[in-house]
Amino acid sequence: MELSAFSNHCRAKIDQVCIDFINQLNLANTLKASILYSYTAGGKRIRPLLLLAMVQAFNEDINKAINTAASLELIHTSSLIHDDLPAMDNDDYRRGKLTNHKIYGEATAILAGDSLLVNSFQLIIQDDKLTPLTKLALIDKLANCTGANGMIGGQQLDIENDNQALNIETLKKINLYKTGKLIEFSLVAPAIICNQDNEIILQLEQISFHIGIAFQIQDDILDVIGNKSITGKSTNSDNKNNKVTYVSFLGINKAKQELIFHFEQALNILRRLNLHSELVEAIFNLIIKRDK
Amino acid sequence: MELSAFSNHCRAKIDQVCIDFINQLNLANTLKASILYSYTAGGKRIRPLLLLAMVQAFNEDINKAINTAASLELIHTSSLIHDDLPAMDNDDYRRGKLTNHKIYGEATAILAGDSLLVNSFQLIIQDDKLTPLTKLALIDKLANCTGANGMIGGQQLDIENDNQALNIETLKKINLYKTGKLIEFSLVAPAIICNQDNEIILQLEQISFHIGIAFQIQDDILDVIGNKSITGKSTNSDNKNNKVTYVSFLGINKAKQELIFHFEQALNILRRLNLHSELVEAIFNLIIKRDK
Prior knowledge:
The structure is a homodimer of 292-residue chains.
Chain A: H1 3-23, H2 29-39, H3 46-57, H4 66-83, E1 93-94, E2 97-98, H5 100-104, H6 106-125, H7 132-146, H8 151-160, H9 168-178, H10 180-193, H11 198-225, H12 228-231, H13 237-240, H14 246-272, H15 278-289
Antiparallel strand pairs in A: 1-2
């Protein structure tokens, strides 16, 4: 199956599962509306697509992983809502639309993110195609990749190092956690679902390290040269916020070289695994060549 | 065992598990420090104590439930950090100490709460005394009681109804979720751990409904007549915030009657279950007679 057909097929499934799930969170209607707003505000669903492509690379039925992929996308949605808050990056726009707190207010935006962080795990629990032990391993890995030693910890490192002189190693560490850890879940969750051994998981973690950095460098490049009408964000916002990025460190040309270096490292490790990973490669390509 | 001996014994165990767990969240040191600050800032550990007392009422070893009780206390800690935020209740003091965001800033306080919401579930996963199916049932129940259809949804209802004319039924609904749902977990988690049937679980949910309301009424009464040096909060803060409470609705005397009514309802249902529930009763007494 080609990437576009695969993407359309999978996105429809993921969106259906996520939207049905959000619609059940109906105790407080404004809270549900706010969660739905951010979930449906666009987004390429890169992380769940990567997860499902990896499941296919292991020759396994992607239906075994739809709920897991959906839970990952909901966690990602939560991080966008919280990262945009005034106390964090203070962004008014995301994907060309007003951010969650600009529409629903800060309190609801905080609670929307909180709900997603908690309820998303239930999608894995409710999946009747996984064994109890697989579910527990997935929840544990997702909590690790998301929590204080994962994405959220990376966001904290980012805040602490904001407006400070930091070296490129620290920048990489921030990205490894803030951006890389949910990508790591995209690649490792399929290995858990497909009962792969630890050696494979270690290789997948290596790949996600490189792809996470490539992803972030592309983000930084787009911030400088991107077209606001495409990215939906103000160009040069990192510079205005005095944010240290790969581009401010290396300049645009060296940043592009670094991006290609990490992309190729990821591809090399992936190819040595000898999986049916054409779609995974196509998504990697999408990540580094995206224009938003 | 008497309540004070039981409490001291259990608190020491819960604190040890929680503090060891928090110390492992060491990617970003400020984040860890901020979580530790709020966890160790006091608190009576009522919810985990109730949970362990209920396990004992079922004649089961409390060691099977320490991790579950600890995860509940960490979720509760998260809710305190987020509820105090400027966008929420905007409180400067909690338990007589500066609130988390007053010390660590709003961004870190948001991320500290986020981490706890995510990582707490791992304490249940890591427990080697529970079967995989029990762990999944506990995580599912905890996510339900915490998320958009639980405590977090209740906080949203509270925000939406702030400063508005609302009736006492709406006030009860808010409390049922905002305060009652974590108490429900305290009582139902032991039934899950001890393999009780659904009929028992329904009774326990009824008890938690009444105790949740009693707990909240006592909170509202303390807000009016409490001593700040004991409660650690400003007296009359609800009134200053134009917050509708049981006391503003009913007046202090009828609020006290209502408290006793719900307390007795809870006791009646509990006693009909014929468990060894002396300690559970003693903790209920503690809840409605507390002075902070």
